[in-house]
Design brief:
Elements: E1 4-5, H1 15-21, H2 31-48, E2 55-60, H3 63-74, E3 80-85, H4 88-99, E4 103-108, H5 117-126, E5 131-135, E6 137-138, E7 143-144, H6 147-156, E8 160-164, H7 176-179, E9 183-187, E10 198-203, H8 205-213, H9 224-235, H10 247-262, E11 264-265, E12 268-269, H11 270-292, E13 308-312, H12 320-326, E14 330-331, E15 333-334, E16 344-348, H13 357-373, H14 380-388
Parallel strand pairs: 1-14, 3-4, 3-5, 5-8, 8-9
Antiparallel strand pairs: 2-10, 6-7, 9-10, 11-12, 13-16, 15-16
Helix pairs in contact: 1-10, 2-9, 2-10, 5-6, 10-11, 11-13, 11-14, 12-13, 13-14
Bound molecules: 4'-deoxy-4'-aminopyridoxal-5'-phosphate.
4'-deoxy-4'-aminopyridoxal-5'-phosphate binds near residues 9, 138, 139 and 164.
C-alpha cells in the first residue's frame, strides 16, 4: 500500500480529485474537457486574485516548466535580472535565467533566514533590473520570503516581479493584483491539490507586453503568444489546438480548484479559507515539533512557511529517521540543501490533508515513534496533544 504522502509535494489528493483523474482520458476537444479547461482558467483568475487583463495559462509540465516559461517570456539575452534566493529553487531560477543569457545577480542569505526587502532596494539602486524573481516558499529550507516587501521595492524601481509559488500557492497569502505581481506561477501537485503534471501561471498585462517586445522569442512550446489563443478559446468554451493538453490532469485540476473555491473555514470562504487553514495547521504542527524536541530550520516562526516544516534532526538522530517514519506508513522527505542534507528533514502539510486532522495526527505520531526508535527520548502522544492544541 502507498504510504501517506507527507512530503512537500506531490501530496495526498481528495477522493473527488482522484475520481476525476481516473476517468477515461477525454480528447482535447471533448465538451467535458473544454468545460473543465475553461472553468479552471476562470477559477485561477479568482484564486490568484489576478489583475484585470491578466492571462492564465495551464500547460502540460511541472513547476520547472512554469519557471522556464516566465524566464523566457519576460527576459532576453543581455538583460539584467535580480534573483532573491532562499535555497535550492532560487538557485535553479538563477541558473535558468543565466542559460537564457540574462545577466543574473543574486541576493542570498544563510539557510533559514529571509532576505530583507530593503536589500532589494539597495541592489536595484546600484543597478536596475528588468525583473526580480523570488521563490515565495523555498521548499528546500521551509522559509517564506517577504514577497510583499520585495515586490514593493521592485516596483518602486520599475522592475517586473515574478513569484515562484510552487510551494505556496493556495497555502500562503498572495494577492497578485494587490501586490502587482507580473507572473505568479505554480504547479498542480502541491497546495493546489491535483496530481503532478501541470504548470500553472498567471501573467499580468505588463508581462504580456514584455513578451511582445522581445527580440529573441522564447522556445515555441513555452511561448505566451502560441498559447494565448488556446487559453482564450477554452475560456470561451471553444475547441482549439496548439499542442495536446494533459486532458486527464485538467479534469483533476478542475475538481481541485472547485474544492478550493467552495471551501469554508473559520468564517472564510474560497482561497482565503485555505490560507487561514494552512496557517492554523502549520501552527499546530510547529507546536507538535516543539513537544517532540525538533527545532525548525527557519530562524524564526515568522519566516517559517505554512505549507511545510523543515526540521533539524535532534542530537544523535540522522537521516535514518526518514526510513523509520516510512516503516510506519508515512512518507516524509530528507534534506534538500546539499550543505545541510544530513542535518534536517521535511514534512509537507498542504492541500487536502489540512482538512483531515486524523492524518496530521497520524503523521505526528509516526514521527514521534520513529524519533524514539532512533534513540531520541520523547513522547509521541505529547506531540499529538500539542497538535490538537
Ligand atoms: N519551485 C519550488 C519552490 C518547488 O518546490 C519546486 C518543486 N519542489 C519547483 C519549483 C519545481 O517544480 P517541479 O518539481 O514541479 O518541476
Amino acid at each position: 500500500m502507498q504510504p501517506l504522502l507527507m512530503i512537500p509535494g506531490p501530496i495526498e489528493v481528495s477522493p473527488a480529485v482522484r475520481e476525476a483523474a481516473a476517468t477515461a482520458p477525454p480528447s482535447h476537444t471533448a465538451p467535458g474537457l473544454i468545460e473543465a479547461f475553461g472553468a479552471s482558467l476562470g477559477a485561477m483568475r479568482s484564486i490568484w486574485r489576478a489583475p484585470e487583463g491578466a492571462q492564465p495559462f495551464v500547460l502540460a509540465g511541472s513547476g520547472t516548466l512554469a519557471m522556464e516559461m516566465a524566464a523566457t517570456n519576460l527576459v532576453e539575452p543581455g538583460q539584467s535580472v535580480l534573483v532573491v534566493h532562499h535555497g535550492y529553487f532560487g538557485a535553479r531560477m538563477a541558473d535558468m535565467l543565466s542559460r537564457r543569457g540574462a545577466r543574473v545577480r543574486t541576493l542570498a542569505t544563510d539557510p533559514g533566514h529571509a532576505v530583507p526587502a530593503d536589500q532589494v532596494d539597495a541592489e536595484l539602486s546600484e543597478e536596475p533590473a528588468v525583473a526580480v524573481f523570488v521563490t515565495h516558499v523555498d521548499t528546500s529550507t521551509g522559509v517564506r520570503a517577504d514577497v510583499a516587501g520585495i515586490a514593493a521595492m521592485a516596483k518602486a524601481h520599475g522592475a517586473m516581479v515574478v513569484v515562484d509559488g510552487v510551494c505556496s500557492t493556495v497555502g500562503e497569502v498572495l494577492d497578485q493584483a494587490r501586490l502587482d505581481v507580473d507572473v505568479f506561477l505554480t504547479a498542480s501537485q502541491k497546495a493546489v491539490g491535483a496530481p503532478p503534471g501541470l504548470a500553472l501561471l498567471v501573467a499580468s498585462p505588463l508581462a504580456l507586453q514584455a513578451r511582445s517586445r522581445l527580440l529573441t522569442p522564447p522556445p515555441m512550446s513555452l511561448d505566451f503568444e502560441q498559447w494565448i489563443p488556446i487559453m482564450e478559446a477554452y475560456e470561451q468554451r471553444r475547441p482549439s489546438y496548439f499542442a495536446t493538453p494533459a486532458t486527464s490532469l485538467v479534469l483533476a485540476l478542475r475538481a481541485a480548484l472547485t474544492e478550493i473555491e467552495d471551501h469554508h473555514h473559520a468564517g472564510h470562504t474560497g482561497v482565503e479559507a485555505a490560507w487561514v487553514q494552512h496557517a492554523q495547521v502549520a501552527q499546530g504542527m510547529r507546536a507538535a515539533w516543539q513537544a517532540l524536541g525538533c527545532s525548525l530550520l527557519p530562524a524564526t516562526e515568522e519566516v517559517a512557511a505554512n505549507t511545510l516544516s523543515a526540521l533539524r534532526y535532534p542530537e544523535g538522530v540522522g537521516p535514518e529517521l526518514v526510513a523509520a517514519v516510512g516503516r510506519r506508513g508515512v512518507a516524509v522527505a530528507g534534506g534538500l540543501l546539499p550543505q545541510l542534507k544530513q542535518a534536517y528533514f521535511r514534512v509537507g502539510h498542504m492541500g487536502w490533508v489540512t482538512r483531515q486532522p486524523e492524518l496530521l495526527e497520524r503523521t505526528v505520531r509516526a514521527i514521534g515513534e520513529a524519533l524514539v526508535e532512533c534513540g531520541h527520548a520523547t513522547d509521541p502522544e505529547a506531540g499529538v496533544a500539542a497538535l490538537r492544541g
